[in-house]
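Listing S7. Sequence submitted for prediction.
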Amino acid sequence: MSVYDTKSEDGRDEALDAAVAAVRDGKLIVLPTDTVYGIGADAFRPEAVQDLLDAKGRGRSVPPPVLVGDPAVLLALAVDVPEYAERLTEEFWPGALTLILTAQPTLGWDLGETRGTVALRMPDDPSALELLRRTGPLAVSSANRHGRPAALTVLDAATQLGDSVEVYLDGGTARIGTSSTIIDTTVEPPEIVREGALTREQIIDAVGDIFTVPDPEPVADPDAVDAIDAAPEADAAPVAAEGAAAAGDHDALEPESAVIPDGHADGIGAGDAAGGSVDAAADAPVIDLPSEAEVEADIATGTDIAADAEPGGRAG
């Protein structure tokens, strides 16, 4: 077990070199993040991930989250990423936001019983980001024994994890000291499964209310439609002509074919937008236009999440 100081520029390179070497050897490291300290391992070495779970005293039913050093990595690790998820990363990465996403099925990793999901976060800590850029994605859970408080200092982590960790990186006291907020994007609408450093209000202010299903567009009253259909055609023609004349638009009685530009049909099927000359006394075609401490979160995917290196089935 070795402890390295990352708080100064002079010691940071040596500390990161030691951490990178340990990760490549399949060993465990402890690293600082903006939220809490995390215990990390190479995400693509199943034996290292299992060592991480053993060090924490957890089973495979609580897989760790994955930390990344660049937002672009998200699209390599996840599929079917909702548009709003990309907007969330633009607003809050790096930062205290963990996203549960559908994992890329072709990846050669084994994080545990993830049920096809992965929790991703980009931490806002210079040492952590530099490390992640050198090592690639790391499986990272909170640096504490299962059921114990999250570590806010390297001493907190070392006291709980001891010699199970090869390299400890000391970045001082965690800046935020509170777990990340976790959003499950694999359900519709998305859900906040743990509100941490980011509040629901902050998220809504930044990207809109993604957590509420929009109200359906109002549908025309069937009785009113029936009443219109039942009205005598002879009564309809004078009314239409009178309205056009009152507006001084005599050409309105003989409109040109309706043209809907490409990309603006809004759900109108082929043939629905057909136009033609319309006589005031003739039946007009009708276009039917259709009206958007450690917190454990053992969610529907079966994972405990706290990608801040905090409790995490997918962020743990």
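Caption to Listing S7: primary sequence and predicted structure tokens for the chain studied. The chain is about 30% helix and 15% strand. Residues 234-316 have pLDDT under 50 and may be disordered.
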